[in-house]
Amino acid sequence: MWMETKAEVEEARRSRASSRRRVLNSLLLCTGDMEHLDKYMQDKWFVLQLAVWGLRGVTRVILANNPLSGALILAALYWASPWQGLLGTVGVLASTLTAVIMGQDSAKVTGGLHGFNGMLVSLLMGVFSSAGDWYWWLLFPVLLGSATCVFLFSGLSSLLDRWDLPAAVFPFNIIIVLYLLCTGPNNPYFPHHPATPPGALEPNGTEIVVLQVIRGIPLGVGQIFACGALGPSLLILAAVLLYSPLLAVHAVLGSAVGMSARFIHGSASWVSVLGSVGV
User: Fold this and answer.
1) N or C: which end of the chain has fewer CB within 10 A?
2) Contact assessment for residue 115 and residue 58, using Cβ atoms and an 8 Å cutoff
């Protein structure tokens, strides 16, 4: 009887260890590039494939390539602002679908390389717009700008490949600058916030609040997607962590270093202002 009990204990221990391994293996399948998902989606409906390609395009903004991370980032955007989440969804799908229609390289399409510029264009158009949320006219420049990014990406890639340079976010920068130049604060259909003239901002104080500094680190990561809320920014950081813990550490360190540089620059500017007035 004692031998039977010992055997049962050993069997239970092996069963628990096997369960933990299965859970760990399942979690590991959700990390990295999730290449196994592409093989699984090969014979699925085009709509589902397009959704996966679009989610990969969402994560390409942060140099990642994980559809589950893309779903978390989209959830964070909808959490912060449903309107911004909708614009981001429309932008990434419009640019990805345009690349499919144009017959662009399938590896780049499935890898999301034609989606992230459309994502950035749509989010920034929403941020710059002064018409408020749920201004449906904004969908027209979002669709047009996101689709145009594909043409620019294709043309710039063929040009810059001669010098082994990536096109990266050149299409996004070109489209958003042209959009802002063609519209203005008084545009009847697509008004945007006026630019702050140089010297209009008052110098900030040099008092440092530790909690605000700590809070600003994840917010700095969220600002990549024009997200200024703490909760959604933490979810975006979790999405980066899911893809690569090392990339998440770099994102946190980069945000922290950027904040430190801003404090040093702010302090230096404040000292120079005081010196100029003879204090």
Assistant:
1) N
2) yes
